[in-house]
Specification:
With about 170 residues, this protein is mainly alpha-helical. Helices cover about 50% and strands about 5% of the residues. InterPro entries: DsrC-like_C.
Length: about 170
């Protein structure tokens, strides 16, 4: 366990400039405004600096998160009519079969307002639904032991999300 803690400390020390309090500026805006090649190069470079070997499985999750921010985080309200509709689409882990309709396959797992997308738990729930067929939580944490959302944000140097890590409770999304 000490080796893993030392490795996490090394990663956090390397990426120290990113370890700021969660920003109020939604990461969806940054992802939309930054060329994808630049984001991917930043992720590759930062992963190399901290010694994380990224595989195609890692890149699949990373691309999903970036696509989700770019296409499924509306600037205003995502259009849910009531809380139950919101729960079925975002929080429920049961995936109802439905077509994306707008050509954006990634949005079939839910839409968030740009403000909601600053909460790590909401983004994490969408990730769980998207990768449920590959093992969900277990699959994501095998790829990103320190939390998929937290790690992707660190590597891409996106603002931290609210409640992304709680060392006192032992959670990292």
């Amino acid at each position: 366990m000490t080796t893993e803690n030392d490795r996490l400390d090394a990663i956090l020390n390397e990426l120290a400039p990113v370890l700021l309090p969660p920003a109020d500026y939604p990461p969806a805006y940054i992802v939309r405004d930054t060329p994808r090649d630049e984001l991917m190069e930043r992720i590759r470079r930062n992963a190399g600096e901290v010694g994380i070997d990224l595989t195609e499985a890692h890149y699949e999750v990373i691309r999903f998160v970036l696509d989700f921010y770019a296409h499924c985080c509306a600037a205003d309200q995502p259009g849910y009519t009531d809380f139950l509709a919101y729960w079925r689409q975002v929080d429920s882990q049961r995936q109802e079969d439905k077509a994306a309709g707008d050509g954006k396959e990634v949005c079939r797992f839910g839409r968030l307002s740009a403000r909601e997308a600053t909460n790590a738990y909401r983004v994490y729930r969408v990730l769980l639904k998207a990768f449920a067929d590959k093992g969900g939580k277990r699959y994501l944490y095998r790829l990103f032991p320190y939390g998929p959302v937290f790690t992707i944000h660190l590597l891409a140097r996106l603002p931290r999300l609210r409640h992304d890590v709680d060392p006192h409770f032992g959670t990292a999304y």
